[in-house]
Write a structure and sequence with these properties.
632 residues, alpha/beta, 8-stranded mixed beta sheet, 5-stranded mixed beta sheet, disordered C terminus
């Protein structure tokens, strides 16, 4: 299909690819033309290649799969960007041994008075050891450098230096809904627990040093770059604790004004003041306009926090919290303000008990102020009931799900049983009932920002720790899962028809994954990265054969001790020695091309040969134990 009105030669043509457009009128193609940031031709290379002019950039896709750019329906990208360069990411690390090697390396690089922070995005279940480090282990690798380790939103581990830095001692009281664990003598041991309120966790994190403004700009660019590396081209920012508007939006606004955004961003405003929520939204609805902005940076309404009395924290290690009796009254005051001003909203809600009470409020408001046409929705909805799904559908709302169960599934099963986990959340039923439903991550703390982990979870029903919690009949096929990350998300930002497909007239956002999403093994999906990512017709990431087209790389991560310089992002460890060495050794063993797989060591022959044993002939020794490495 071609836009006949496009008389100018395309800026970019991509050809010889396997293009999955998700456009039902034109589902497949092998070539694409892009002009002024919009798809202007999608079809056959024989028809599209002659459109090229002298200035047209032409990229040979070499038979690779092409998908619409991925859009995260719930990402804390603004807050995450401000801090990305300071964080050591354990996302995707497969053993605690690797993780601790990385930590030790970063401790050695980090100058006083800075902290080493591992801020979520991982679970102990992803590690081969199936555990977190002990506080003693943290103290051993970092006796003097503060270390703060956030595990999901259930706990934080602080070494002795971090405890001293934050000033917690025997006289520090427990905050509401949280616990500073102390020993028999009343001294803090370095363990903070959400019970279930995570306020103690992010309030403690907020005590650490912050990056100066220019470094925050650099940090946000690197976070966007990391998302582009994984094929993400758009996101809806859900606000977040300690993310104040407009102060903490200055960095992202500067990047937008300087045309440096490589992620399209819609943002929701999140109240920061318990008992002052109504005043926040009265002020914001007067000073901000819904949809203000452009295709790269635009206002998307309110949430995910509307009132603190409705926040049911999702720590499945703790019993389900009951919301107080004031919830309905406070929520109704805010929702009426939003409905009167025609602002959509999103509401964090984990449990059906919270969702059903919120729906009582929404239905009451709807009697006076029709909600029709407002793209409001619930976030998360892990335990939502069929009845609540039907009520949402009747009111014209939606449900934005995230892959939190991929990281917390084991804890949910431990508390509620495997049967309860089989449809948590019940995505297939939501889709069957016709409710607007889309997918995202809720990164960067309670889960990783990697979209392919989310896609793998929806398709396989497995946690990142390998536990199968969703039976096949509740899993999604690959195309449906992909639509959850593309076209379905556009309703949640009121951009239907503008993006989400590779189709003439839509914004030119696409990804070329390094593995064929539709042909690779299910076990490989979560390991996918992008070979090429395009946003608005501009190459924002290129690797391998496409690296030469990549002109969007930001300056090196600042400060010079940033973990991003050493380790990169999700499973992209850049340090060849020391940190990450066990993972790299396993990767090398996995790529061994020999015909002999040892029953003891697999293909990790070098480990067997180089083991420090008091013998003269290592190969004979291992062979005597049944090891076949000697035969290589």
């Amino acid at each position: 299909m071609t836009d006949q009105s496009a008389s100018a030669a395309p800026d970019l043509i991509l050809h010889s690819g396997l293009v999955t457009t998700l456009d039902r009128a034109n589902p497949a193609a092998d070539a694409i033309a892009i002009t002024d940031g919009v798809f202007t031709a999608v079809g056959n290379g024989r028809d599209i290649m002659p459109l090229a002019g002298p200035a047209t950039k032409v990229i040979d896709l070499k038979g690779k799969r092409v998908l619409p750019g991925l859009i995260d329906n719930h990402l804390h990208i603004i807050r995450g960007g401000l801090n990305f360069n300071m964080e050591l990411r354990w996302d995707g690390v497969r053993s605690l041994s690797d993780a601790m090697s990385m930590l030790k390396r970063q401790v050695d690089l980090t100058p006083a008075p800075q902290w080493v922070r591992v801020v979520g995005g991982f679970t102990e279940h992803q590690f081969a050891e199936k555990r977190l480090p002990t506080i003693e282990e943290l103290n051993a690798v970092a006796p003097d450098t503060p270390v703060f380790l956030l595990h999901l939103y259930d706990r934080a581990l602080l070494n002795g230096a971090a405890l001293r830095a934050v000033g917690y001692d025997r006289d520090t009281p427990n905050p509401p809904g949280g616990e500073i664990v102390k020993d028999a003598k009343g001294n803090p041991i370095g363990l903070l627990l959400a019970k279930p309120n995570a306020g103690i966790l992010y309030a403690t994190l907020a005590k650490g040093p912050k990056l100066p403004f220019d470094y925050q700009v650099n940090s946000t660019r690197h976070f966007m770059r990391e998302l582009n590396r994984l094929g993400v081209t758009g996101a809806i920012d859900a606000g977040g604790g300690f993310q104040n508007y407009p102060e903490d939006y200055a960095v992202i606004q500067k990047l937008h004004d300087e045309n440096l955004l490589t992620i399209r961003l819609a943002y929701n405003l999140f109240t920061q003041k318990p008992k002052g929520e109504k005043d926040d939204f009265l002020n914001w609805t007067k000073t901000s306009k819904y949809k203000q902005g452009d295709d790269y940076f635009r206002h998307n309404g309110a949430g995910e926090m509307l009132v603190f009395s409705a926040a049911d924290f999702e720590d499945f290690r703790q019993p389900r919290p009951d919301m107080g009796p004031e919830m309905e009254g406070e929520l109704e005051e805010v929702v009426r303000i939003l409905a009167e001003n025609r602002w959509p909203w999103r509401l964090h809600a984990t449990y059906d008990e919270t969702i059903s009470r919120a729906l009582d409020v929404f239905e009451r408001v709807n009697q006076d102020i029709p909600l029709e046409g407002l793209n409001w929705f619930f976030d998360h909805a892990e335990t939502i009931s069929d009845q609540s799904i039907d009520r949402i559908a009747a009111l014209g709302g939606g449900i934005a799900v995230q892959h939190r169960m991929a990281y917390q599934g084991e804890y949910f099963v431990e508390r509620y049983g495997m049967g309860a986990a089989e449809a948590t959340p019940p995505i297939a039923r939501m889709l069957d009932k016709g409710v607007k439903t889309s997918a995202g991550t809720d990164a960067t703390r309670v889960a990783s920002y990697n979209p392919w982990v989310s896609l793998a979870w929806m398709i396989t029903g497995r946690t990142v720790g390998g536990l199968r919690i969703t039976p096949q009949h509740n899993c999604l096929d690959r195309e449906t899962a992909l639509r959850m990350w593309t076209e379905n998300v556009t309703w949640f930002s009121n951009e239907e028809g503008r993006k989400g497909h590779i189709a003439v007239g839509q914004l030119a956002d696409l990804v070329v994954p390094d593995k064929d999403f539709f042909a690779c093994a299910e076990s490989e999906i979560s390991d996918i990265t992008a070979d090429l990512t395009v946003v608005g017709g501009n190459v924002v990431w290129g690797a391998g054969d496409f690296a030469k087209f990549d002109e969007a790389a930001p300056p090196p991560a600042m400060p010079d001790w940033s973990p991003v310089r050493t380790f990169g992002g999700y499973a992209a460890w850049g340090e060849p020695e020391g940190a990450g060495a066990p993972a790299l050794a396993r990767k090398m063993a996995a790529s061994c091309g020999c015909a002999n797989s040892c029953g003891v060591h697999g293909h990790d022959h070098a480990t067997a040969w180089s083991s420090k044993l008091p013998i003269s002939d290592l190969k004979s020794f291992w062979g005597a134990l049944g090891c076949a490495c000697w035969a290589v």
